[in-house]
Every structure is written in structure tokens, then in C-alpha cells.
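Q: Give me a protein?
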Amino acid sequence: MEPLRRSDYFYELPPELIAQDPLEDRSSSRLLLLDKNTGAVRHEIFRNLGQFLRPGDRLVLNNTRVIPARLIGRRAGTGGAVEVLLLRRLEKDVWETLVKPGKKCLPGQNLEFGDGRLTATVLEVLEDGNRKIAFHYEGIFEEVLDALGEMPLPPYITHKLQDKQRYQTVYAKYDGSAAAPTAGLHFTPELLKALEAQGIGLTYVTLHVGLGTFRPVKEDVITDHHMHSEWYQITPEAAAEINATKAAGGRVICVGTTSCRTLESAADDAGIVHAGAADTEIFIYPGYRFKVLDGLITNFHLPESTLIMLVSAFAGREHVLAAYEEAVREKYRFFSFGDACFIADFAEK
């Protein structure tokens, strides 16, 4: 059997279709409906999502909160500029970070942010080049970070974000992400309430999104790619709701690839989701057998990314690439602040 190659997941995207700003009304995004079995495509508006759901279906949403994880400061001694991106907390004031310029930030180097309101010491260079850093401050770290940090927008967004809350879902609850679970950005409180009134269950899980989400696949054969690790948690109540939905014949529809990776990581081979907290490095690509997922609401992903590979595992590479070509023709808005896609078996009764 031929190996799966990175180039198999490439598509042409005009740069002007990369959304630079969020829409004023979150739920006014366009929604492309893709039948995962036939490849048939329809065009809709996100606020009409309920028309394609049925009582007994359950949406699974990731309630992580993005932290303002980008810190701009100076190196003590030289005064040279430095940028630190918080990736994940290792212990109370020690974080794994991405530092630029890395060559200037070796163990023992001290850093300053916000006129010394926050300082840091580089402790260690990790295997992948990331830095382990200890922070020093007075007061509450989250408050200091909120005052000094910026939202870590993806590199393809060049516009400055006017309102930090627009890179958060309306149901964001637990601090810890370096990137937003962007499929959830389309929901408004009114839409969530309407869906519940329609008999659609809402279940929240937590996965703190790492910047590895944006890390390109560099290996030609995709199975050689090493997936980044992300922390997730599923409460006993959430696991019970998802398992009860499956048992009753309802569909479990993940909002975003992060919710999908959470459920597929926590499920056993019988498709039962188990409560708990753990790190996951699950890499889903064509050939993967889904244990829980019945439908996926997601944004449009970068060419040759692990995310377009996950979507292709669910709906088939040919169907996905054909739908993406259609979205390009129809001038959909792509990536984090872009439009959405709902993938399911729409012939099911």
C-alpha cells in the first residue's frame, strides 16, 4: 500500500480568502454542509445550524479559554528585544515556552516585561528547542499576564485584534490555551439556547490547545510526523451524557477538531468514553477508525496540516478536497476567523 504523503493534502488558496478579522455577528458566518458519504455540498448560514440537527443529537464543545500568552520584553543586561509565547504550565510559575530569538536565551538568561512588573529566568532548553522558564512577580500571575500579554493570534493573521474577547468562545471557562478552538467562535448565547430548546444536548469538555496546532507537517510521509501533546479533561457527567446519547441512538457531533481529539483519546475500542484527565498526542489521518464521532463542525484548515488530515479521515480525502475547492470558488473565508463546515451523513434518518 502506498504511504500517505503530505502533498496529498495540498490545495490552492488565494491569500485574500484568509479571514483577517472576526465578523461582527458570530453566527452570520457561512456554513458549508458536506455529506461525508457522498461528498455532496450545500451552502448555508451558521445561525441555521439547528435545521440540520435533530432532537437527541449532542454537541460536544471545548470550553478552554485562551490566555494572552504572547509577552514582548527585553533581555536583562543587553536590553535586546525578546518575545515569549507561553505553551503550557509545568508547575506553578514554570512554563514551557517558545522564545525568539532562541539563540540569545540560554539557561541563566533573565528577561523583563512591563518595566519589570514581570521578570523571568530561562531554566532549560528542551529537546524540541522550546525553553523552560520560571516567572517572578508580585500578586496574581493571571492578572499580571492579562495586563501585559497579547492574544497569540496565528501567524497568518496580520491585523491587530481590537477586542480580546473575539478570540474566545462565548462559553470559554478554563484558562490554558495558546490558541482558540475556532469552530466554537460561531456560536452565540442565543443560538446555544435555541439549540437546547430544540432538544439538542450540549456537553462541555476541556482541551488546552497548544501552538503545535499550527506546526506544519515537514515530513513527506505523514506517519513520520510527531504530534504535539495537549492536556484534556472529561468530567464524569460529560462522559455519562455522551455515552447515554450513543446508547439512545443519538448522534455525537464534535464542535472542532480539539473536541474530536479529546473524545477519540478518551474512548475505548467499544466506543465508551471514559472520564479523566490526561495528555494526548493522538494523530488522526485517513485509515483511522472513529470510535465516537458521528459529525464534525469545523473551520477550513491549512493545506497539508494535521487538521485537514483529520477531516479527511472522517469524510474521505477526495470529498474534502473537492469541498475545499468549492469553498474557494464560492469565496468562503478561511482559517481561524473564517467560515465553518458541518460534516455528517445527511441521508441518515
